[in-house]
Amino acid sequence: MVPPELVDGVLERFPLWELPSHFADIGGTPVHYLRYDAEHPEALPIVLTHGWPSTVLELTALAERLAAPSRHGGDARDAFTVIVPSLPGFAFSPQRPTLTGAEQTHDLWHRLMHDHLGFRHYAAHGGDLGAGITSRLAEAHPGSVVGIHLLAAAAPADDDPTSLTPEEQKYLSSVAARQAEEGGYLRQQSTRPLALAPALADSPAGLVSWILEKYRAWSDCGGDPSTCFSDDFLLTQASLCWFTGTISTSFRPYYEYAHHLTRRVQRVDVPTALALFPADPSQPPRSRTERTYHLTRYTRMPRGGHFAAHEQPALLADDITAFFRDLRSRHPRAARQDL
Questions:
Q1: What family does the Swiss-Prot or TrEMBL record give for this protein (predicted)?
Q2: Which of 62, 212, 274, 334 could form a Cys-Cys staple with 309, CB 3.0–4.6 A?
Q3: Alpha helix (H) residue ranges in the chain
């Protein structure tokens, strides 16, 4: 667990102290989250889940737009009450205490939204690791989750090679080529995370290098991260891992998934939207996504990459808003905060 005095010290060092931070005890598991209250009284609650290598900081610009759309040229009636939790093991949320027997993250999120915050119905969005968590959240709690918006999609549980379309076959070939070219980080974090962690926890330069390489490779920066990210943003992301000592615990989702400790997504039947940003490595065809999800919106964005919430918050906010605007009109009960 991150000591409270260390959390206070980190919050004092960075502009994060200005953000709406809260802590919840979910069945003995501490969870840190940001809360942005909506500007409209009948707002739909939404939980946003970040990925790796990231923190809640990546989602703040998106959260602000969703909570107060009128400040950005939108309609206040489209506002959301936005909850942005820190993943277990990332910065201010301690990692779950055991590999087995503890609640998985998607169930923690449901208990946070439904039990702790009192939202009977809510929406969800996620990319990278957050896309998997969001998918499992919708699969496990379809009575509460009105719809999900994703930046990546889970692979079909039963992937029959004989049923693949030419587009899907081309996509899987590209995935294999990409993994061969740059999948070293994934293999290391999935198999021997604790062999890597001490070096990164001991060297600020090594930690920044490990993280910055992904911001360069996965963003729409043309090889120059400064075109998408300020030095302050990148150094703050790295510092949040450094000062809380959480780079090692941030690797654990990769190990858990590789060792079948994370539940695989089978079928998501709630309405699902997928937004693909061109520089993001994940570009599944629509037909492949439909094998797993009740896909009702599929959008190819004109620009942006893996860190879309920070790179292109306006584009992403508009797509989330448009998707859930239709769901609000068809499910009026979901357009109220049931506190």
A1: Belongs to the peptidase S33 family.
A2: 62
A3: 4-13, 60-67, 105-110, 129-140, 166-182, 184-191, 193-202, 204-218, 231-244, 247-250, 252-258, 286-289, 308-311, 313-330
- Taking 50 as the pLDDT cut, the residues of the chain under it are 1-14, 334-339
Determine whether 293 is an active site residue.
no
Q: Is 128 a catalytic residue?
A: yes
What is the spatial distance between Cα 42 and Cα 120, in angstroms, rounded to a whole number?
13
Name the one residue in this structure whose structure tokens are 């499992």: 136
254: annotated active-site residue = yes
pLDDT at 114: 98
Choose, from 33, 171, 254, 293, the residue flagged as catalytic.
254
> pTM here?
0.92
Tell me which of 33, 110, 116, 128 is the catalytic residue: 128
Task: Please report the pLDDT score of residue 1 as a whole number.
Answer: 42
